[in-house]
Amino acid sequence: MKDNLKMAVWCFTCFIALSICVSADNDTTTVVMNMDTFIRLVQDMESVFPESTALTVAKLLLRSTLSVFYRGFLTETQVNNAQILLTHKIVHSNETGWQEKGVVLAPDGSTVAAGALLYAMVWGWNEELDCEHVQSENTDMGSESKESGQTTDKDEPCTQRTAYNDQRFNSDSVSKDGQPISLATSLGLAFLAPGMTQNTSLSVIDGCWDSISAPKTFQLHDAPFHRELTLAFLNGAVDGTILGEKLRNESKDLSVILHDYYMEKPARSPARRQEFQNTIQGKTLEVAIHKGIQCYMKSKEGCALHNVTDDHLKAVAGTSAREFKERYLECPAIIPRCIWGAKPYKGTPTLLKTPLSQIYIHHTYTPSKPCTSFQDCAKDMRSMQAFHQQDRGWDDIGYSFVAGSDGYLYEGRGWRWVGAHTRGHNYLGYGVSFIGNFINLLPKEHILSVVKDRLIQCGVRSGYISPSYIVKGHRQLVNTSCPGDLLYEEIQKWENFKVTIFLTLAIALIIIVTIIQLTFRCCVMHVRRCMF
């Protein structure tokens, strides 16, 4: 009888536990992971603490994931949403592959780690604050967790904790003491991982959402090579740095600051890389990374790095600073096919033999109006792909990349696959088109720079484009007015523009005809003078 009772109690306990787990999973899947949801969470916190500054609200949100203290102020749903939205994790399973948690889809089409965003807004992108202050903040957060009955890894001896080297692919951007890791520290840690050398390139992994209208799951393209340095994490840390300046210099609510940055038209967020460079101008990335790792090593979380020498640390700081600058800051932001809603390629794409030596510049002509938002540019991309596949019978959209006037490049056939952009030359170069009709107007200067100064140079550094590349307009190779008169005049000013033999002959012919006409006019005038 007692055994039966024990069995019944055990089954009931299992049932309750299973119900809780299923409920938690359902809660996770019902949260729409976009910027609107995140801003609503911020507004909820602002309504609970109406007198708080934007900085205080950001700190409260960071702490809301660490303690049940806020359950007295926020509803269970709000606390649950905070934990889902702000806890950045990379998880893996055989069924689902690599997924990134704690990231949201912004209206500009980019993905942002919300926790990294808040942390950078509060503390900045580097470790300018002293280590003791950071550790004091960690202690405060840890004590809150203890008061709520939770335990942290801070209570465990250093020797009992999992070494950093063993958790390379099972980590998140929040330390086990509860304090998020700064961008500078994360960059340094990435190159301190096993197998990293000074010749290792920074590899930033992006992914795809299960839905653009109601995103819930973000699937990474591949396993993260550098701990938590995904594109979403970098976007969040960079955005937070930019917005942190506004947070300290303006009296606006946090929700208003976020709305102005992401939701206004045109949004400022597509220019995050350029703005970040302007924000940190005059500050040395290398020094900040070195200092950040030193600070991290003084915490219990960094105990596994006690054997790292200062010389090695300086070398790592130099490598990670250079790679971040060249592979992220100086490269363009590219909206992948899965985000703008591309249909599958028809048939089997043909692999390019890189590096290629030619860049062909186009304009779309139709659509004729430059697009200035992600929604409009994505719609134009889908329209062009439908025209190329259905009307022209091509396998896919023809261009390699397309530049929108929203500040983003859009992936067409990309770096690896042969396009259908310049007849007879598709194997030799990349076709890059600007959305719009540029016969009588030009793309904005910063849009031109995205192609000229970022896409091409990034392609050279990545080995896709030959250092001795040349730029040509579509009309130099095919009988067409593309890329429009004014845009064609513009690209002739580019450093690697190449005048073709046909163009040279045409210019020579025009000069000869002009000379003949002037000579004839002079002769006619001379004859008239003689007659009188």
Question: How would you describe what is shown here?
Answer:
The termini are far apart. The model is unreliable at 5-28, 138-172 and 174-178 (pLDDT under 50). The chain has a six-stranded mixed β-sheet with strand order 7-10-9-11-8-12, sandwiched between helices. The protein folds into four domains: 1-30; 33-330, no CATH class; 337-498, 3-Layer(aba) Sandwich (Lysozyme-like), CATH 3.40.80; 501-532. With 532 residues, it is of the alpha/beta class. It is 46% helix and 10% strand. Strand 5 and strand 6 (218-220) form a beta hairpin. It has helices spanning 2-30, 35-48, 54-63, 76-86, 114-123, 131-147, 183-190, 231-249, 254-262, 272-279, 285-297, 310-329, 337-340, 374-391, 445-461, 485-491, 501-531; strands at 89-93, 97-101, 103-105, 111-113, 207-209, 218-220, 334-335, 356-363, 401-403, 409-411, 429-434, 465-473. This is Peptidoglycan recognition protein 2. It comes from Leptobrachium leishanense.
Provide a short characterization of the protein structure.
By secondary structure, the protein is α/β, with parallel strands linked by helices. Helices cover 46% and strands 10% of the residues.
List the helices and strands and how they pair.
Layout: H1 2-30, H2 35-48, H3 54-63, H4 76-86, E1 89-93, E2 97-101, E3 103-105, E4 111-113, H5 114-123, H6 131-147, H7 183-190, E5 207-209, E6 218-220, H8 231-249, H9 254-262, H10 272-279, H11 285-297, H12 310-329, E7 334-335, H13 337-340, E8 356-363, H14 374-391, E9 401-403, E10 409-411, E11 429-434, H15 445-461, E12 465-473, H16 485-491, H17 501-531
Parallel strand pairs: 7-10, 8-11, 8-12, 9-11
Antiparallel strand pairs: 1-2, 3-4, 5-6, 9-10
Signal peptide: 1-24
Keywords: Immunity, Membrane, Signal, Transmembrane, Transmembrane helix
GO molecular function, one term: N-acetylmuramoyl-L-alanine amidase activity
